[in-house]
Amino acid sequence: MLRIPLADLTTTIHQALLNLGLSNDRAALSARLIAETDLDGVHTHGIARLPRFAEMVRNNAIDLLATPTTTTTFGALERWDGHRGPGNLAAHAAMSRAISLAKTHGLGAVALGNTTHWQRGGTYGWQAAEAGCAALCWTNTLPNLPPWGATTPALGNNPLILAIPNAQSPIVLDIAMSQFSYGTLASYAARGQQLPVPGGYDGSGNLTTDPATIERTQRALPIGFWKGSGLSFTLDVLAAMLSGGHATHQLTTDPLQEVGLSQIFLAIAPTSLATIEELTTIATGAIDSLHSATPIDPTNPPRYPGEATLRTRAENLRLGIPVDESQWQKVLALAS
Amino acid sequence: MLRIPLADLTTTIHQALLNLGLSNDRAALSARLIAETDLDGVHTHGIARLPRFAEMVRNNAIDLLATPTTTTTFGALERWDGHRGPGNLAAHAAMSRAISLAKTHGLGAVALGNTTHWQRGGTYGWQAAEAGCAALCWTNTLPNLPPWGATTPALGNNPLILAIPNAQSPIVLDIAMSQFSYGTLASYAARGQQLPVPGGYDGSGNLTTDPATIERTQRALPIGFWKGSGLSFTLDVLAAMLSGGHATHQLTTDPLQEVGLSQIFLAIAPTSLATIEELTTIATGAIDSLHSATPIDPTNPPRYPGEATLRTRAENLRLGIPVDESQWQKVLALAS
User: Fold this and answer.
1) Residues of chain B neighbouring A283 (CB-CB closer than 8 A)
2) What confidence tens digit (pLDDT) does each residue in B33-48 have?
3) For the whole model, what pTM was predicted?
4) Contact list, B286 vs chain A (CB under 8 Å)
């Protein structure tokens, strides 16, 4: 495992994106978002996805030059068309607009249709929190999750992000609707480990903690069983309805053609109602209470969403960002 | 099990609320909301809660005469104080205002602090959907759920409701953040049944499907393990921050003193962006796709959130609402 300084990682990604044909400013922003994903330890969604992005540019699934346009506006609500441009840039622009709407109207939302993979969803939660806004955002995905009561994938694992600004300790939750992603299942299987909790069904319809079995049955488990199944469905329909884009069932199951996604970016400005001091007192009280719950393992007390990310970020800024050698070679090849 | 016609149930609840001292109009609205909860088959949150409501009026935890007031407004966002009035009436007024804000601004939200138990959360989702709006709403609760990694309750099971308008088939999701409520655990235990999926931990820290064991350990499971734990925490902090009210850790664990709750009511008007026809096509396509997933049990295909409710509602309108005999006697006593 290499350790690459943030500046070097960012510069190399920037060059790779320039080589693909992205303009300088857009390549710089995209490179920052990708590098910060690895900086925060979310290695599944950082440079690991860059080769697939390049391939989807080359196969014309992603239109590198497309930027989102506004289709309809009504007060603090807007509908955008992403024109299958780079998904992280469209998502960043949509959240930026939602934040601006929230600062004018107290809250605001952009529904973005016809877009492409936004890479790390948490990126847009951190973006809102750092701008002083709370946020809810979510995306649909290709069908990869059976609904409760069925054996075939008809739902997406539709990541949902909630973010709350809180001085130097924002609360940022980034959860997919499946208990484990296929990426996580593959990691456990490669290490020969069982999952810590049941993650899906075996061929006989019994819950299992064996990752390879779930990869085979393709019957991953929604969070909370019927509850996550219903939540995934509802998020999908609402995103498609507001954006006028596709719902999960209209998306291909070919990951290299995963385009036409629908996403919601909703921001709320708490400082339109209260002082920073009042807001900080509330968040600090809740965090202190969480930390004082009796831990199962005293060396590993309960954490609030985002807490571990900040620790990882600080460590990686100090030591350099851990990068898989073979992934790094692929990024260097794209940048050369 | 008795079957009581909706009109009779409503009239009897109305009289009980008049006897407690509620004004005629407010008693009529509250009676409708409570009766419709039993009509929809959510018997844990309908007349079953009326004796506790009466007791909380008598012990002055609920101020029967209080109505919510607006504390702060900014654009499409408002902060209200519920003054510990009847929680269902305050919640209905807050969602009504959020709907009105959404029709003006595309979306709108009311953050309601210092309120009391809203009874069935789904009520406000149906209210929005029937008014043509999508909605997200949630409440915090007293601490009844251990955070992930802890053994003591520091989170609430904070119900989250998502609603989507869709002609005669709205999509309404109403989920608490615990896999099973204590009410549900008690029902399974009373019938001597095991839970269909793990619902908490036994005394050795192993997952269990035995409801009585979880009642004893008080270690119920959040939906999705660490994911529901993080979601519950984030919903709580955001509700307290926006409403200026209490977070879960500030609430007493005595159910007869469960006051000072914080709630969010957020409505979105899809028809500000699209025609009803376009919206209906999207929802219908997603529902049809869900219904066509291969069922585990062909007699019980996957359902969308709210689908079973509509069937129950139709049956109970036809046959009368099933009412537990002993609960009915308590309502009659309050109405006499």
Assistant:
1) 237, 241
2) 999 999 999 999 999 9
3) 0.98
4) 233, 236-237, 240, 247-249
